[in-house]
Amino acid sequence: KETLSLEESMGLTESTLRLATLAQESFTESTKYLTSALRGFKLEMSDADRVVDVYSELAAKAAADVSDIANAMSRTASISESAGMALETTAAFLTQTVETTQESAENIGTAMKSIIAR
């Protein structure tokens, strides 16, 4: 298990609070979303701001909420990484699907997971 320095912990906390604000989710839910992306893509904790930035930028350009993108990603991250997909590519696919179908993030994340697995 990885031990974080005080500086890393503070940075991760700030990123999580930013995600919670942008996604209008609880700190607990935002922690889950952020952790699943970081662990799923085997990123460093210092990449937390990158994850939040990707979600925020995509949501600003599409009819998709940060919450939906993060939720769908939480179901897709590890299999996407295993298939060689980058965080940004996966997030763009998920955002486009959310925007186009207006299906729930849970359904989209699960469907994308199945598609990638095949």
Overall SS class: mainly alpha
Strand content: under 5%
Q: In this structure, how is the largest beta sheet organized?
A: none
Order of helices and strands: HHHHHH
Mean pLDDT: 91
What share of residues is helical? over 70%
Count the helices. How many?
A: 6
Task: Write down the overall geometry.
Answer: globular
Please count the beta strands (DSSP E, at least 2 residues each). Answer: 0
Termini Cα gap: 31 Å
Rg result: 13 Å
Low-confidence stretches at least 5 residues in length (pLDDT < 50)?
none
In short:
77% of the residues lie in helices and 0% in strands. It has helices at 6-23, 27-40, 48-61, 66-82, 87-101, 105-117. With 118 residues, it is mainly α.
Model description:
- This protein starts with 5 loop residues before the first helix and ends with a helix.
- It is globular, with a radius of gyration of 13 Å.
- Helix 2 packs parallel to helix 4 (66-82), helix 3 packs parallel to helix 5 and helix 4 packs parallel to helix 6 (105-117).
- With 118 residues, it is mainly α.
- The chain has helices spanning 6-23, 27-40, 48-61, 66-82, 87-101, 105-117.
